[in-house]
Amino acid sequence: MASKKGRVFSGARPTGRQHLGNYLGAIKNYVALQDDYECIYCIVDIHALTTVETTEDLVDNTYDMALDWLAAGIRPEETIMFVQSHVPEVMELHTILSMVTPLGKLTDLPTFKEKVRLQPNNVNYGLVGYPVLMTADIALYKTDVVPVGVDQGPHIEFAREIVRSFNYRYHTNVLVEPQMKNTEIPKVLGIDGKEKMGKSNNNHIELAATPEETRQRVMQMVTDPARIKRTDPGNPDVCNVFTMHKIFSPADEVAMINVECRRAGIGCVECKKRFAANLNANLEPFRQKRAALAENPAQVWDILHEGAGRARTIARQTMAEVREAVGLPK
Ligand code: TRP
Predict the structure, then answer these.
(1) Residue nearest ligand 1's atom 11 by CA
(2) pLDDT at 48 over 60
């Protein structure tokens, strides 16, 4: 790996089938980073336990997410892709790091306060320690770079502090202070054109949807709200469909829409039909690969297990160094 720039780690909760927002906000970057970094991508099922009401979908959600990652271009021959709980050392490191983490800082984090607001009847201990477990994820693999969206910025900053505290307290440098790499493109809005695209809002477009389902979802997309009649001129600058065209459509078509929308030369229905067609064309290779992988689910699990094996080799080495640094009896 000497030719690579360092090690990348990122994690995502098992949310099942991925949507365009997941793709543009995270997966696309995960794929691209493989060219320059040694990458480790983790499906964080333990983190999911802090918020899920039931675990009955956990296995399916893990599988579906892994399938989408692979179909989107994660290369398991080089990249380590695994399930968090398959490397239990992370929970051991979490406990050790919790001793150098000030409680007040954890309860002050805006992300924690938000969770308390969202689930006032389930403010569990794990929720408080969420960022410590994240730090354990990152530190266990001596991660150099963590690609995340801005919402995770405070967590990465906190991870750096925890690592610094650990190294300071135990007079060591076994843990690596990670750098954050903000990989977020402008917020990907959902069908409603207002909120961030997400499953919980049901305003998302799944990558694995059929072309016809995709077309139907696209046709529901909200465009420039000020454009009411077909003859009204539109404003592409405030239209989520146009934003998506800029990502998925050929440049000449984008230029045409930019002109024609403003003078009511093209209507929203045609504009969306064009977007649906271009999106479907873009997703075709993904869908083919996904279908091929889905023929053999055992192989997807093999990839995850094999990834966990490789991850665990690194984890065990780090934990040996951590125990030694802390001064735990041999
Ligand atoms: N907290 C992240 C999220 O909610 C997921 C996550 C867990 C993560 N561990 C991580 C992200 C380590 C980056 C690095 O999206």
Answers:
(1) 11
(2) yes
